Amino acid sequence: MFLGNAIATSEVAISDESKELFAIGSHVNLLNKNEEYHSAVKDLIENEITMQMKTYIQHGHTTCYQHCINVSYYSYVISKALHLDAISSARAGLLHDLFLYDWHTLQEKVPLFEMHGFTHPQKALNNAKLYFELNKKEEDIISKHMWPLTMKLPKYRESFIVIVVDKICCIAEFLREKKWFKLLFGLSYNQSDFMKK
């Protein structure tokens, strides 16, 4: 149900006129100050450092920023429903890909374990620690969100939630752009929803 809803609804980036921000598949305006999610991430969501992620594409045409919003919001919702630390899930989800470079254009050949998929969690953690105060759970979530590629087993249930949500959002972001997917499932398809803003 999550994947179908995620793909059926368009995502909207922050704009100065509308002041709206939605996770893929959600109708909740994440900039609404009355929303619990907003209070958990208000210092991160419009921070100039996290906004830099808008300049990099993550999956398909989805920006790194929008992807992190997607992961953050749904990790928050699931963690809250399970009576876990929803705030740490939301904050770490928003910072989990704060590596701040375009991984699609990396040209140099490196050994397998030095490739982006293996190394970006530590780079994101280093950046997050440089600019924000993190607790141990948030550090674990960010550094291990690519498990099992990161090898070390995550310590917290919230870490596993972000790992799973990250993969589901990645799939939703890629598949939503495919015309065959629209034809197969009859879902709305709007390429402009995914362009860098």
Keywords summarizing the entry:
single chain, 197 residues, mainly alpha, Hypothetical protein af1432, two-stranded antiparallel sheet, globular, disordered C terminus
CATH class, please?
Mainly Alpha
Main sheet record: 2 strands, antiparallel
Compute the CA-based radius of gyration: 16 Å
Total tally of structural domains: 1
Structural class: mainly alpha
User: What's the tally of helices?
Assistant: 9
The mean pLDDT is 78
Fold-level CATH name: Hypothetical protein af1432
Q: Determine the strand fraction and express it as a percent band.
A: under 5%
Major sheet strand order:
1-2
Total number of beta strands: 2
Strand/helix succession: HHHEEHHHHHH
Tell the overall outline: globular
Helix content: 40-55%
Terminal CA distance: 28 Å
Second-tier CATH architecture? Orthogonal Bundle
> Are there runs of 5+ residues with pLDDT below 50, and where?
1-17, 187-197
